Amino acid sequence: MGGPSKASETYDFLLRLFSDSDLIPLGPFQKWAARFIAKRRTPKVAKHYEEIGGGSPIRYWSEYQSLKVCEILDKTNPETAPHKPYVAFRYAQPITENTLEQMMRDGVTRAVAFSQYPQFSYSTTGSSINELWRQTQIIDPNRTINWSVIDRWPKNAGLAKAFAQNIRDKLAEFPADKRNDINILFSAHSLPMEIINRGDSYPAEVAATVYAVMEELNFSNPYRLVWQSQVGPRPWLGGQTAKIVERLESQVEGIILVPIAFTSDHIETLHEIDIELMEDAKFPEKIKRAESLNGNPVFIEALAGLVHDHLKSGELYSKQLPLDCVLGGETATNVFKHPSEMFGNHSR
């Protein structure tokens, strides 16, 4: 998805985001509605980016993570070295077409599209893959780059360990006699029910990550999965993070919020949780947020391990991706029908 590195880039980011019918279906007036919504929301959202330091840190963390992963892969997978990292965002710079153009200039012939959404949704990972397909038709029509994809990894052991480590660190900030009674709220980005009702795998995969983390913690605390970042009047997946916090905060010893579907900090953590939710809380002293994964060494090793295993396996895409395309692609335009059209050797 990405995020504007500067507050001045907010309008372009929002326009691309609301223009994406895979993520936010707005019907036949999508383009007009996207311009209207982006223009209307830009002043408020840009102000939020100013309040977290002038822009989103997601590009910094994405470039850092990918660089460290490639450094590890050069040692673990010498047969495919050197490994070069590229970052491509769906709605912010560097956008997909710019990254693909750079890869073509660099003479890349083999690439792995590694989704940084651990849990698949057609509206996020699917949308990013669709955009890669569209831009490939324009920029690489001779299919000189042989692609494969890591399209989901919700139960990865290293991912669960990294989250559990950050939760333990935050639990340690509570008094020892209250620690086991602290409520853990795993907060993920919500999606419109219109997308969920198509059979999207996202809620199940987020729940799978939550369960894997709690297994790592030996189910030491009460926990729930909640959903944030709803936009507009249409029904979205709930219960909402802010409303669940409001119901619990006066009745429990403490709350730890865990951004379970995010692999680095950005506006949903740094502003929506750290500022907005905390300002609205009646007992903010009871509420803490677990650190985002960012540069967590356990997490970086997990990312490298995923690519290592992927390269060794020869797998082009997961067993689930064809079904995702059938269920999620009902209203998508200019997309492939089956992932075998995008991934694998198609050189001409």
UniProtKB/TrEMBL annotation:
Entries under InterPro entries matching the protein: Ferrochelatase, Ferrochelatase_AS, Ferrochelatase_C, Ferrochelatase_N
UniProt xrefs under NCBIfam families: hemH
GO annotation, cellular component aspect: mitochondrial inner membrane
Keywords, alphabetical: Heme biosynthesis, Iron, Lyase, Membrane, Mitochondrion, Mitochondrion inner membrane, Porphyrin biosynthesis
Recorded catalytic activity of this chain's protein: heme b + 2 H(+) = protoporphyrin IX + Fe(2+)
Recorded metabolic or biological pathway in which this protein acts: Porphyrin-containing compound metabolism; protoheme biosynthesis; protoheme from protoporphyrin-IX: step 1/1
Protein function: Catalyzes the ferrous insertion into protoporphyrin IX.
Listed transmembrane segments: none
Pfam hit, one: Ferrochelatase
HAMAP family in the record: Ferrochelatase
Name the record gives this protein: Ferrochelatase
UniProt-listed PANTHER family: FERROCHELATASE, FERROCHELATASE, MITOCHONDRIAL
GO molecular function: 2 iron, 2 sulfur cluster binding; ferrochelatase activity
Major site of localization recorded for this protein: mitochondrion
Family: Belongs to the ferrochelatase family.
CDD domains found in the cross-reference section: Ferrochelatase_C, Ferrochelatase_N
Location of this chain's protein in the cell: Mitochondrion inner membrane
